[in-house]
Amino acid sequence: MTAPWQQSFKDLDFSGDDAQNVVGNVVGGDVIQHVQKFMRGRPALFLGPSEVVDRVNCHVPAPNHDLVVKALEADRAALLGGPPGSGRETAAIAAMSELRPDIPIRRFASDMEDSEEIRAAGPCGYLVRAADEKSEGLVRCLDAAHAAGGYVAIIGDEDQRLRLNLPVPFIEVEPPDAVDVYRHRLTVRGYAGPGWARWTQARALLERARPAGARRLADIVEDVTSRGGDLTAMQAEVVQAYRGWGQELRQWFLTNPEPQDRALMISAATLQPATDIDVYAAALALARQLRTEVNGSGLAWSPAAGLRDLLEADSEDGRIVFRRHGFARSVLRHVWDDYPLTRPDLMSWLSDLVLDANTASAQRTLIAEVFADLAAADGLYDRILTAAQSWAEAELSGPAYILLSQTCLHSRVGGKIRRGLYDWAYKARTDQTLKLTIARVCEPLGQAYPSIALTRLKHLATHGNGQVRQEVVGAARSLAQAGQRRAVIDAALDWSGEHGRVSVAARRRRMRTGAIIFLDLAADVTQAGVPEILVHRPVHEFAPAWGAALSADPVLDVGGVFGLWLDTALHHAHVRSEIVRVLIDAGRPVPDRVIDLARHWAAADPGDRTRRRIRDEIVVALTQTWWLRLLRILMIWARDRVTAPRRAS
Questions:
Q1: Residue 77 and residue 154 in contact, taking contact as beta carbons nearer than 8 Å
Q2: Sorting pLDDT into bands at 50, 70 and 90, what band is 26?
Q3: How do residues 424-442 score in pLDDT, each as one tens digit?
Q4: How far is CA 367 from the centre of its chain?
């Protein structure tokens, strides 16, 4: 439960050391929800608890699965070999969950900062791509995970085993039968009807497939079936979608060799659903990017009346749309793979479309997703960082947020993106909208890497203005609500301290931000009425946070939380002296303010003797003039002498 007087961030005053509190774009809630939904459905980008449960439930054990379990149990680490898609990662997830149910599992990159993350996170299961690692980095990762009681599964092959030369067992995972994986997944998900479980063509499609192919086929069946329709037609669509629409797309591009027609297809696939005008405009921009001369200008393009027929597309509310599963994304992948010389131009075209003032907000979201997919899959982290910066500087925070949040956890480029976020957060001159965007990106980042995200938030709080710090507080609160409460508490206490090689003004900004986060967390109480924050740390460790909160300038509204903590001291004798001592020590720089707070709290029940004693202890300790302190002590003694007989009678 939360104390009824807990303050809202909307009421807090972040002004005082700067005036730029309304500069830049804040990422909208609809964009954040869009990304959260996206990431829950994309295991390549984020491995959340629901994904782990799904992977374990749908897991078909490899013939040598017991070897994987025994290796992780004995050595807490193993290098799992086999070709991509053979089920190595799923085998590791299932084995870790078998050894320790409910253990958090996440993907990992072993640079120095990430290894520190292991030490802070406690027991976890880690999935590491051997292809992205160096031996010394992995050794640090293994040592840190072992010390924290976690497991490490390194996904690689024989060549990587020889290159890394790690002191861990190597197991070549024997993939289970792809058809068994396909059928089991459909059964678990409730789609194993007679039309699909006994579908004879599934075995033909999966003849040379690995478990990853079987999972993809089952996912396509699920999506196509959810839209309903004739079974034969649905099965035909599943076949084409599973094959990536390769044959159909190759035939279409052969039949339509004109660059402007191909540009129309790429444009429609990228923007769908889109109006005819939007498709033509984007296609013209792509043609110019590709330096394609179109003789006859607008008259050289296919007429609008035949556009849907040309593209073999459908219409929805007057807009062009491709209803077939995965067709639109397959168009872009086909062009990317079959026409590699167009890749730089496609990247520039997509980035410019986001910047185009005529591009609708919803379309910018789609374009940012496409850009993230293509760039991350090919390791183009520099393109991602450049595009995100240019979009943010144009005050397009939504697309920049989508691009960074969907790549900061990517197994191939995530480390580079996280490094870019750090560099931007550390620089005081980073664009305002980019700072605001980074603060929100730290929310999804922090679900996998809490200390890494909080480090970036710390630098934003140190070097950002009031608006940026408000976004930092919001991001920290979201992380606390998402299960990273202890990490956020640690960060708030760290920020509240007077340390770090920064200017006095920068230190004050960081301390104030830490104090605000602390006050929000300190207002939550347990069922027993004790501040929940005290469950995680001893009382005396909160002195710096209280000091920052009480001494903040402009003044923070601490009265409600101050009263809550004194209520705890009143009703729980075992922590009374510690709480009072912390508040006294924290209040020494501002004694008059703390005395007023204590008196206001005690006035709620003047007849409560224990309440008066707590108030008196604070008042006497913080009275700085010696004779006034002595006078107050005498007054308290006299009052107690007068009231004692009255209570006895």
A1: yes
A2: low
A3: 999 989 999 999 999 999 9
A4: 20
The span from the first CA to the last CA of the chain, in angstroms, equals 41
> Cα angle at 245 between 243 and 251, to 5 degrees?
125
> What's the CA gap between 485 and 495, in Å, rounded?
15
User: Distance (Å, rounded) from C-alpha 453 to C-alpha 472?
Assistant: 11
Interval 283-340: pLDDT, tens? 999 988 988 877 666 666 878 888 888 998 888 888 998 888 888 888 988 999 999 9
Looking at the chain, how many residues does it have? 649
Q: Beta-strand (E) ranges in 150-216?
A: 151-155, 170-172
3-state secondary structure of 107: strand
Q: Beta strands 319-321 and 314-316: pairing type?
A: antiparallel
CB–CB of 191/198 below 8 Å? no
Q: What does each C-alpha distance from 46 to 17, 122, 408, 411, 447 come to in angstroms?
A: 38, 19, 9, 9, 9
In this prediction, residue 35 carries a pLDDT of 58
| DSSP at 524 | B
Give the angle subtended at the CA of 59 by the CAs of 103 and 411, to the nearest 5°: 65
Peptide bond before 554: cis, by omega within 30 degrees of 0? yes
DSSP helix/strand/coil, 26: coil
Residues 6 or more apart from 360 whose CB is under 8 A from it? 278
Burial class (CB in 10 A: 0-12, 13-18, 19+), 591: middle
Task: Give the CA count within 13 Å in the CB-facing half-sphere of 363.
Answer: 26
pLDDT band at 18 (very low <50, low <70, confident <90, very high): very low
Lowest mean pLDDT among 294-303, 320-329, 539-548, 578-587: 294-303
> Alpha-carbon distance 338 to 349, whole Å?
18
pTM, entire model: 0.78
pLDDT at residue 23 above 60? no
Cβ–Cβ under 8 Å, residues 145 and 76: yes
Angle formed at CA 313 by CA 312 and CA 315, multiple of 5 degrees? 145
Q: How far apart are CA 283 and CA 262, in angstroms?
A: 9
d(CA 183, CA 177): 10
Question: What is the number of other CB atoms lying within 10 angstroms of the CB of residue 360?
Answer: 13
Question: 196 by DSSP, 3-state: which?
Answer: helix
CB 597 within 8 Å of CB 562: yes
596: nearest Cα among 550, 539, 544: 550
Q: What is the CA radius of gyration of the chain?
A: 30
Sign, CA dihedral 206-209-211-214, equals: negative
Distance CA 572, CA 242 (A): 64
Res. 485: pLDDT tops 80: yes
Classify the C-alpha dihedral 216-110-70-164 as positive or negative. positive
Which of 269-273, 315-319, 470-474, 596-600 has the weakest average pLDDT? 315-319
